[in-house]
Amino acid sequence: MITNPLFAYMAVAMILFSIGLLGVVSRKNIFVIYMSIELMLNAINLMFVALSNYHHDMGGQVMAMMVIAIAAAEAGVFLSLIIVLYRRKKSLDSDIFRTLSQKEVV
Amino acid sequence: MSALLAGIVLAPLLSSVLIGLLYMISITQKPLAKMWFTAPALLAPFISFSLGVIAFLQISKTGEALHFEPYLWLSVGEYKIYMGFLGDKLSIFMVLFITFVGWLIHLYATSYMSEDKGYGKFFFYFNLFLSSMLLLVLADGPLIMFIGWEGVGLCSYLLISFYFKDNSNVVAGNKAFIVNRVGDLGFLIGLAILFFYCADAGFSYENIALKIASMPPYLLPLVGLALFIGAMGKSAQIPLYVWLPDAMAGPTPVSALIHAATMVTAGVYMVARFSFLYELIPNVGLFIAYIGAFSALFAAVIATKQSDIKKILAYSTMSQLGYMFIAVGLGAYSSALFHVFTHAFFKALLFMGAGAVIVALHHEQNIFKMGKMRQVTPVVYVTMLMATLAISGVPPFAGFFSKDEILLVAFGRGEYLIWGIAVFSAVLTAYYMFRLFFVVFEGKNALHVNHPHDVSWVMKAPLVVLSFGALFAGFIGLPSLLGGSHLIGSWLGEWGGRVLHVNHETEWLLLALNVCVSLLGIGIAYKKFYAYDLSKHKEATGIVYNKFYVDEIYDVLFVRSLRKLSEFIAVSLDVNIVDRFIMGLSHDFIKLGHMVALVQNANVRFYALIMMVGVSVASCYLIWMVD
């Protein structure tokens, strides 16, 4: 299994994805969470491209390009949201933003 | 043509609704003149009476019963109950005297209640009562009858507690209602059993009569007894009689209409209506007759010591109802209905006369505070004398013939114990009625607190009319022994019961004995109470005066023990066991809820962790477990 050239790509993609997931779960800073999400997206992109090449099918690469484009657009929205949130609470700690919870301490 | 049966019931019902609405306007908008209430209140019973007479003529011409089914009342699956009216000889007979006596009492009440603020309300209830009673009588099946049965119970409750500002009246109303409910339970059980076995083709008397033979025979006595328990409640027989004396808390016309002439006879009517059932179970009939005999004696004994004029009459009502139950129990339904008929006249007259005396003395009810009323109210004196003679069984007054017939039945059937009790009760009846009469009208040295005055002619006119009834009603049922043709017996031929085998000598002997018995009672009363010196009167004491402490016994047996049981359940059982269990359970749920709430900690990263774990587990499952 390890001799398969696809295995290296897949392993890297999985490790990247896991790091991103752990970042989302464990970090408080919204920026870091955002970066972790981007990491996960790119791990998936890597998988798409690798599989596309492996199967000689361009569909995967097309999908990867689309993910990059959408991630770029999403970045604009996400960053502006972070700015708004920061203006509200003067903080980037994600645990502070719990308006939708009944447990919010005003 | 048969639609007029509905008219008989509807006329008082509509007028009662009308009066109720007018009364609402009168108390909320502006007061209306009494004319507005009087006119419909008097018109409605009169219309019913006229329609009743038309129906009577119709039936006597064709000899066939009238049926009327205006609409479907209930439809349960395949089963249908129609609002049905049945006008046969029995029900039309009842309708005639109910509406006639009822109309006279309405007329009397317009004067008796004229000073009352609730004048409109009174006639609202009164007409509603009349309509319920007529529905009870004209129903073609037990279910429709039960509507009327409950309706009269309700109106009785409303009218007994009519002077609701006095708490004891409200208590009396409650008592009547609750005791009647006890009886109704029996009635309902009986109906339920009948319904189960006999309601295939509709639940009317005719169908039940056809199906009754196919019922399991061991159930028949049960049904008979259960229905009779209902009659016990309505007709104030031992042991459910306790409400009737207390029911005198209501206005006097109420006592006259409901607790003498009509409602209390519903039990007798019901047993007569179910005669096809009771014919099959003579043992239950005998039980009914014994209950009637003991009620007659018991009430008569109590009545001899009472001092409240209306209570004496209430006990005498119960006693006379006992006679009727002797007759229905022994299967002589037409004799019982004959007594119902004559009783309606003279008892209504007695109550209305008593009411007139009470009004004349500004609402004094103790007979030992009356006296000398002969000079004050001569018309009442004469009419009351007739009624008293009638109830005592002196010929040729009405009560003599009907009571004689019942005693003859008891003797002819060989029930000598019942006959003996009934004869002894007849002595007591004559005695206590004339005791009342002599003390009220002839008592010397009366200490009238207020100056007595004569009553208006509106009150006296019905008395005069009824006194003719008390005098002549008996001749309608004149036995063949005295050359009569016994019109009531032949009219109610189906309800005549078995033929008696008594020869003419015995009949004459019994007749003479009855006259002697009533004269004996009158004689004792004359000796003890004629020109009674009221200033030397001492209030009676003892077990009879206190009504054998039955109320107290019931209080201990039922009311208090029930209260103890309720307290036990409320305090020990509920608080210590049920509450502890339920509240403990709820505490546990609350604790569990707090534990679950820990998961919902508003920490988004924590949710993400849970999601991650979940996705991981699901992935692991998909990878290793599937396939």
Looking at this protein, list some descriptive labels.
heterodimer, A: 106 residues, mainly alpha, Helix Hairpins, B: 627 residues, 2 domains, two-stranded antiparallel sheet, 24 helices, 72% helix, globular
How does this structure look, described?
The complex is a heterodimer of chains A (106) and B (627). Chain A is 74% helix and 0% strand. With 106 residues, chain A is mainly alpha-helical. In chain A, helix 1 packs antiparallel against helix 2 and helix 2 packs antiparallel against helix 3. In chain B, 72% of the residues lie in helices and 3% in strands. Chain B is mainly alpha-helical and 627 residues long. Chain B has two domains: 542 residues, no CATH class; 73 residues, no CATH class. In chain B, helix 3 runs parallel beside helix 15 and helix 18 packs parallel to helix 20. Chains A and B meet through helix 1 of A and helix 24 of B.
Short structural summary:
The complex is a heterodimer of chains A (106) and B (627). Chain A contains three helices and no strands.
Report the helical percentage of chain A. over 70%
**Strand arrangement, major sheet of chain B:** 1-2
Number of E-state strands of chain B: 2
Structural class of chain A: mainly alpha
Globally, the shape of chain A reads: elongated
Order of helices and strands of chain B: HHEEHHHHHHHHHHHHHHHHHHHHHH
Radius of gyration of chain B: 30 Å
Architecture per CATH nomenclature, i.e. the level-2 architecture of chain A: Orthogonal Bundle
Supply the number of structural domains of chain A.
Answer: 1
Q: Kindly, what is the distance between the CA atoms of the first and last residues of chain A, rounded to a whole number of angstroms?
A: 56 Å
In round numbers, the mean pLDDT of chain B is 88
The biggest chain-chain interface is: A-B, 14 and 9 residues
> Treating each run of at least 4 consecutive H or I residues as one helix, how many helices of chain B?
24
Tell me the fraction of residues in β-strands of chain A, as a range. under 5%
Q: SSE string of chain A, helix = H, strand = E?
A: HHH
Number of strands of chain A: 0
The low-confidence parts of chain A are none
Largest sheet of chain B: 2 strands, antiparallel
Class from secondary-structure proportions of chain B: mainly alpha
As residue ranges, the low-confidence spans of chain B are none
- Fraction of residues in H or I helices of chain B: over 70%
